[in-house]
């Protein structure tokens, strides 16, 4: 397996508190890695360490197979990033801002500016001063700037913040294109599952500085459970019928009204008729999936029941 970025026991302590704790993160070449966690979980701090903006307290970072040091300028040139809000010279136009960036980074091709302005949907906004840009436009311009030096790895901290639904869709499509057409590996943070779920190949979940899960979306989709949910006035009676008369053992009582049956040996309509036959007053019965949302929300909040 080829990893483009790895962290080994990465830790950051601020004022005596570990805000990133022993994180082992593995970002594979070519993938989109969705980095998910609630506000304050440590996402930005970890991304700042990956881009040498913050020095780790302990642990190591490997980029492109090499150890990241304070003077790893060549490694940093191979990545692009937007961390927190992108900063621009407000009075300068979008084009001038990108031009300055190219010079600063030692890239001279001006054609790249037009190409990337178009790519992020800002083709006609090049002459506009950045002070007249909306937050969404600044996010796009930040992305153009991060892309202009043709990075192999793109690190984007909450890139969808401030975008309207159309902008979110366009940004998602762009991420997919960057991944499939340009083979750029991406680390994208968010505190909202829906923002990354549709594009990510792998999801890493950080909570209180710890990486609590790192898993491929494929395996999550494969393993998330199907079940039949029964609402009944007396779910204990329903559970009795399920266990002792139908001989199904994989079920769980949830509250005063709800029973979930995880066995795949029975259909919802068969279960309904059997329960009714044995005198259970079924109020509703339906086939459901334990949604990804529930799975991830459970992990992000630290709930025990996240199966
Ligand atoms: N320079 C700093 N000095 C002290 N504490 C800091 C500093 N930077 C971040 N923190 C603290 O570290 C913790 C993690 O912050 P971080 O910004 O990395 O989280 P996050 O997951 O990116 O959250 P958000 O989505 O709100 O940006 C927070 O408790 C924050 O207050």
From TrEMBL:
Keyword field contains Transferase: no
Keyword Metal-binding: no
Domain annotation ABC transporter: ranges: 5-233
Keywords from the UniProt entry: ATP-binding, Nucleotide-binding, Transport
Alphabetized CDD domains for the sequence: ABC_BcrA_bacitracin_resist
InterPro entries: AAA+_ATPase (IPR003593), ABC_transporter-like_ATP-bd (IPR003439), ABC_transporter-like_CS (IPR017871), P-loop_NTPase (IPR027417)
Gene Ontology terms, MF aspect: ATP binding; ATP hydrolysis activity
Name of this chain's protein: ABC transporter ATP-binding protein
